[in-house]
Amino acid sequence: MCNDFYTALGYIAFWVMKYVAIPIGVGVIIKLITHKLLQPHPERQRKKRFNKNRLKK
After folding, report:
1. 20 to 30 A Cα–Cα from 55, which one of 14, 21, 34, 40?
2. How far is it, in rounded angstroms, from Cα 4 to Cα 50?
3. Mean pLDDT by 10-residue block, N- to C-terminus, for the chain (57 residues)?
4. What is the sign, positive or negative, of the torsion defined by CA atoms of 16, 17, 18, 20?
5. Please, how many CA atoms are within 13 Å of residue 27, restricted to the half-sphere of its CB?
């Protein structure tokens, strides 16, 4: 095969990584991180309420 063929495959692979794979991967990682950070923590809320109720008695 000619070197031009491999060069074209390299450019295609680079383009796919740069414009498709990396943005999708970054988007998925950001979504997972924000979902983890923004989800409510009911066990922590219960502990806070329990401590407040204990101090009122």
Report:
1. 40
2. 71
3. 90 95 94 87 59 58
4. positive
5. 6
> Whole-angstrom Cα distance, residue 40 to residue 9?
47
Integer Cα distance of 26 and 53 in angstroms: 43
Helix or strand run (H / E) with residue 56 = helix 42-56
Can you give the length of the chain in residues?
57
* Continuous H helices in 1-57: 3-16, 22-38, 42-56
Query: The pTM is what?
Result: 0.56
Burial call 7-19: b when 16+ CB within 10 Å, e when fewer: eeeeeeeeeeeee
